[in-house]
Specification:
The protein is an all-alpha fold. It is built from 7 helices and no strands. The radius of gyration is 16 Å and the shape is elongated.
Amino acid sequence: MAADKQETKDVVAVILKDHRTMEDLFRRMRSVEADRAGALAKFSALLVAHGEAEEAEVYGALKRFKDVDNAEVEHGTKEHAEGNDALLALLEVSEVGSDAWDARLEDLVKAVTHHLDEEERTILNDARENVPDERRAELGAAFLRERERQLAADCGSVENVRAAVRG
């Protein structure tokens, strides 16, 4: 953890690191040799904590910058809800590796991968180009604090995801 403290807290870099972790967890969930249920539990917690932290600490702040596309930020929030819907559908399948589980996993991969790609091409590029380094560092620190708070609250549990989806 000490190494993380010394690394940049640039919000773009922090979000991109989570995105790569999510992609790695997708690979593990698809692998019959991996602990697929364990990978799903880690993914669930990360997806929920990441989305909540973006919405609470990052998206609103980015909308205040002239050259950050507000419509894309709003769209990102909608895609978080779609990802949570797909996550809940997978969490509610009782047998890991069943045909239903694999189908719902692919639905989740499709929804989240689409969001990651779009967010990286629009919101994060806009932030990198238009938000000063110091402000990106402040946003990164705020994002990490909220993400950790969410993780500590067991945000990825099926009960919590269900409550978030049903609003």
